[in-house]
Specification:
Strand content of chain B: 15-25%
Number of helices of chain A: 13
CATH architecture of chain A: Orthogonal Bundle
Order of helices and strands of chain A: HHHHHHHHHHHHH
CATH topology of chain A: ABC transporter involved in vitamin B12 uptake, BtuC
Oligomer: heterodimer
Number of helices of chain B: 17
CATH architecture of the largest domain in chain B: 3-Layer(aba) Sandwich
CATH class of chain A: Mainly Alpha
Structural class of chain A: mainly alpha
Structural class of chain B: alpha/beta
Number of domains of chain A: 1
Number of strands of chain A: 0
Distance between the termini of chain B: 20 Å
Helix content of chain B: 25-40%
CATH topology of the largest domain in chain B: Rossmann fold
Largest sheet of chain B: 7 strands, mixed
Shape of chain B: globular
Chain lengths: 309, 521
Amino acid sequence: MDGTDIVVSAALTIITAATPLVFAALGELVVEKSGVLNLGVEGMMVVGAIMAFATGVTTENAFLAILVGALSGALVGGLFGFLVLVLLSNQVATGLALTIFGIGLSALVGHGFVGVTFAGVPSLYIPLLTDIPIIGTILFGQDLMVYMSVAFAIGIGWFLKSTRAGLILRAVGENHDAAHAIGYPVIRVRFMAVLFGGAMAGLGGAYLSLVYTPLWVENMTAGRGWIALALVVFAAWRPGRAFFGAYLFGGITIIQLHVQGVGWAIPSQLLSMLPYLVTIIVLVVISRDSGKQRLSAPASLGKIFYAAS
Amino acid sequence: MIGARKKGEVVETKPLLSLRNIRKEFPGCLANDEVDLDVLPGEIHALLGENGAGKSTLVKMIYGVLKPDGGEMIWAGQAVQIANPSTARALGVGMVFQHFSLFEALTVAENIALGIPPELSGPGLEDRIIDVSKSYGLPLDPYRGVHSLSVGERQRIEIVRCLLQKPKLLIMDEPTSVLTPQEADKLFETLQRLSSEGVAILYISHRLEEIRKLCHKATILRLGRVVSDCDPAQETARSLAEMMMGSDLTSAVKAEGRAIGEARFKVSALSTTPDDPFAVALKKVSFELKNGEIFGVAGLAGNGQSELMDMLSGEALASNADVIVMEGHATGHMGPEERRDLGLGFVPEERLGHGAVPDMTLWENGFLTAGRGQGLMNNGFIKTDKTKDFANAIVERFNVKTAGIEHHASSLSGGNLQKFIMGREIDQNPKVLIVLQPTWGVDAGSAAFIHQALIDLAAQGTAVLVISQDLDELFAVSDRIAVISEGRLSESTPATETTVEQIGLLMGGLHEAEQHGGQAA
């Protein structure tokens, strides 16, 4: 294996490591922009992972598996939305409970799927383009979900910045009382954002069990939901930065694995810490202007909205 | 200035909006009952009443934010159900809220786009905002972020937002409580122009003088019911206030010939550098408080008052301990409790959350600031009986309307809680009392009571600092007045040697007016 092969394979693994984080972080970003703090990302991801995997193995249809992953994430998100938006339960406690619930539920469903493997999601192949050395496979040889994640990053950025619906979503997250007084349906907007966030977390989970390691292991999300949550905050609620942060994290995760493989005399625990440390430091540094940080944080984040009528 | 009102301008026509027998009940409180109201096209119609009389509830029902429990609304001869604000806007109702419904992190244009129907908010909105704001004399830059705007500018956003929809009825809930007298005069010109164009205006305010000048008709609410209709120009501010209260108004009387003693509390060249983008930096603020004197600081909200309050109370510490000196003690580095031990008392602006803990009972709230100074504590244990006696004494002396001191602070209306907090500080006989916006949103009767309490305290020798944007209040209580503007404090002048107009000009930041005013006087 020569140098370019190593670079290409590293780039490909970086993409696969980053993509689940991109999905989950972008979904949570939209949820938080609407003013809801959902700490249950991990739970929604892991449910998405097992449901997608189970569907994929049973039906051998990758597209159906992805779809079911998203829908099951949205369903768990919907449960969260019902609890916090309709029954006005505490968002932090409910989110934490959702994570525990998701891990338990996925373990139960996944009991019969341990040790089974899945064929994987087909990758794009465009004659000539994909055959270009080095960049061919990186740009034109990925699976459908990688392209979806990029499209979502661009689309969400555009949606929040340039559309009326995005403006309403931001307004609801910024000041729910004012949005209600003007006449926007705060609860409905937030519910839709929570459903979307759940679907995105489900997609992130589906990517883990269908592509990253195409098999089911209990608790296989391994904290990625929490990373996604942190990415949103450190990215100052900007989709572009969240995307960048996910790739930074994915990149360093892969690179430190390669370094461990080379066998340098650095304690492996230190290297394992590296992705967390570097991602947080880099994002904190680029978002360190406290004034801008305050403006980008949705002012109603985590606050319960109750409309007197 | 406001020109003489022309009675002939309002022609007797069919009412634009009629309310019949409107009723609204909240758990434990009947907010509106049997309310009838007629608003004619082109009429500026005042809604008057004390705190909690049901004015805001009534207009929120007209704007569709709240649903009435009973009664009828008739719009231009047709019975209507206003289910939500969009319905109201479609009919032609616009509303400027008391607490603005604005989004700090968004731009002016984005804020306006949110408040108008989608078909109006398409491309070219920025140009239309500039057009409307120019033609009505309400300058506004659509691309600025709201967080960087003054309160007056924020109100313009709300007004322009309403005007873009060409409303037939404009509802204004206490629009002038945050404006300088000059800004208020500008607003009155705009309102009179709208009225002459046939727009009806429903106007809520606690400022009775401006209602007398501006409004064609007034409807007075007491405890949720209409008690009378009148022509405010035929009434005096006092008679209007008495109709609202249903009893006689006693205004505060200044104690004459008081001996003003030595400076007890000194602030010299206090400056701050805030790291919060919304905060104002204080720039070399200097003043001293003398025994027995009430020093008034005028200024529009957001010119450094809350920052000054934080520095004086010890919520924020000064960079140098010597800039704040209390009877020879450098207090700049002391926390609030140490300052209280020296005999300082504070009443912050926010009652719930700063002045009192909302979910604690009144007596517990009493203990929180008086516990050490009043000996309500025994080796770290609370002397419950003594504390309750202390709280009961406040409730009695300051006439706080509450079901008892075992009730939570949040259960009191704003005016009553303010009386309790003022009473708690005053009953500790502080050597220095510092109060911020003592009667913000408090009705005329309670305000007069609070003013009298401050004057009586000063008469006993306490040095009092009152920071407020209500000039009538400052002139009613102060011996000396200074103005805070953009973090700078002006020289003080004796209250007898200046006028509301001069102070108003200074509040707007027109510093050159100071010399003109000085020459005229």
